[in-house]
User: Fold these one by one.
Assistant:
Number 1:
Amino acid sequence: MKTERPQVKQDRAVRTRRAILEAAAVVFEEHGYDAAKLSDIVNIAKVTKGALYFHFESKERLAQAVIDAQNDSQPQLPPQQYRAQDFVDIGMVFSHRLRHEVLIRASTRLTLEYGNRRLDRASPYEAWIDLHVAVLEEAQRRGELLPNVDPVVPSRLIVGAYAGLNTMSYTLGLDLDAQVAELYTHVMPNVVVPAVAIRLDTAPGRGARVLYGPRGAHECRHQCEGGVPPQEPAPQGVRASA
Amino acid sequence: MKTERPQVKQDRAVRTRRAILEAAAVVFEEHGYDAAKLSDIVNIAKVTKGALYFHFESKERLAQAVIDAQNDSQPQLPPQQYRAQDFVDIGMVFSHRLRHEVLIRASTRLTLEYGNRRLDRASPYEAWIDLHVAVLEEAQRRGELLPNVDPVVPSRLIVGAYAGLNTMSYTLGLDLDAQVAELYTHVMPNVVVPAVAIRLDTAPGRGARVLYGPRGAHECRHQCEGGVPPQEPAPQGVRASA
């Protein structure tokens, strides 16, 4: 019997945890928290129930890990001329990721559900608001904002509105990217000075452009097709155990 | 044995139906669709299970009636100088009603859930968007809109954003009215001409003002306190059967 090196064992545990998280995302996205079955999750992840419980104590902890995923692993973006553009890019990149990453979609879905009160649904909102406020405060220091703008106000507005546009787009089968683009196009002229407003890119496809450069849409098609997310490839048929 | 006149019988049936709907709202608001128990609903409504099934064939039909309630019974509002103000008032009055009417709160909650696919969650969005578009088209005919505004775009934006601000406010314990006021304050200057924009009332409390006049907040306190909605008094301890 071969003994494995600790590093190999650890890598495999990380892969297993990831496989479970991705499988949970598929099931939570499809059924929501209450109706999701752990047996479906272990089947999709191709792991044992024991492996699942090794990584996540309960369905609740697993759902919480899915919820928290939306604020982990923010992609590093190239610096922009205006902080206001960075502010816009947070949401435009997120709409790109929502399209391509099931984990992100499931995370927002669980955040938007009203069920199970013990799940912490406030933290994702707060984390997003804090992130937006920090960027907007920096924009303010650089003189990009209109007078008397309290950075908290547009930050809350964008985060809350975004969540609703996400739900509505899902329910009506609309393209979220286009809806989010309209949100920024309508809101930003009342947040930033005109000289900044006219230089912002708030058009659909901005997420792909900032991630992959001016040929974003083309590069995205190249990299994203087949549902493989550009940031973190989904585990494909991983057979793993804890 | 006294025989009742048909009118008396019919009135009672209407009251029973309403009592069940209000009780269902309480339970759906608290637990969501999946976890809601019909036994709790009949207990609160003080009706028999038979009476419930007489009015609503199934839990699903009952939930659908709650969902549909948000678009029924739009309050009649006094005409305003600008159609753009009517556009704003749709949402400001709705945020007032959300505060005071459990049926409206439960309706939006069920609309925002992702669970049970057979419930029709698209219709409320579509009905709200259609209502907004109709008002904005009239505003456009009167020259109130900026050039090249497609009434569908701000209508979708407001309806979707509103839904998210509602969920976020609920989750974070924020005052929805203040969030919605910021939505209109930020969006309307990019929809209507400046001469209309500066005359719009988009401040918090607008819902109460348009319903009760300039002393809206005071009148609201007078009429709304104790959780009794201003438009349709909740049945209080109605003992009714089908």
Number 2:
Amino acid sequence: MLNIRQATAEDVPTLHSLIQEMAEYEHLPLLITEQILTNDGFGVQAKFRVLIAEFGGNPAGYAIFFDSYSTFQGRSLFLEDLFVRPEFRKNKIGRALFSRVAAIAIQENCFGIMLHALDRNELGNPVLQEDGCYVPRQLENCLPEGQCIADCCWSRR
Amino acid sequence: MLNIRQATAEDVPTLHSLIQEMAEYEHLPLLITEQILTNDGFGVQAKFRVLIAEFGGNPAGYAIFFDSYSTFQGRSLFLEDLFVRPEFRKNKIGRALFSRVAAIAIQENCFGIMLHALDRNELGNPVLQEDGCYVPRQLENCLPEGQCIADCCWSRR
């Protein structure tokens, strides 16, 4: 039922729709276009990598991540987005996407995955915590846009 | 007096010493070695870029940054470290390093620079604010290691 695969340039329209849904959820304006996504994600020097989750053949979610670095600990991945469409939730798709990114992190000798947790992510934050992410209970680091985030880290150790 | 230049593999011993000083300032254990820095920063697929600041011919500070991405806004740089040795402070070296990274961000069509501000950085945070970074007044997002950080963004707009 669930298939997770690397995205290609042909997935850009689907990906843009999914990011649009994510932006609506986060109440943020979306400045990025399909053209920008194509150039930055699927060109010669790609700035990010994308996994697409399909459930019953339909696009159900995605993960976007890129290389990150800590001068104290070395290589890591930064998980920019992990999103599952509302109608596909409760099928452990988010956890499967996260596990796939974690497998890549381990394969590439990263110490862990960095990410931001959003305060109103009531579904995702407990999953992250169960998987060993440190998520502060109170997310009090509020940005001018009104979103409150916390830096989290899933460590392979 | 002040010279800012791109680091090469020959700078790794100096760079490692500077990172060691930064780690002592942040009370964090340094896991990274000269060998890891050489492999990850100066190999075929470098994970980060380094600027070295020399003042009167002596290594005075450094900046380490890498490509970052926002699915809402597009390309950015993540400024991982910006450090000036205590004896070289008050010479606007930090601001010069920051300006150089900002110039690269503009040149590479980035929307801005992402960074973490540390709560006890009494010298650096006001500089960032003067340069237009948003730094929350209260940095309440504390990690288990005891450091309190805030996500900041310098935007070219």
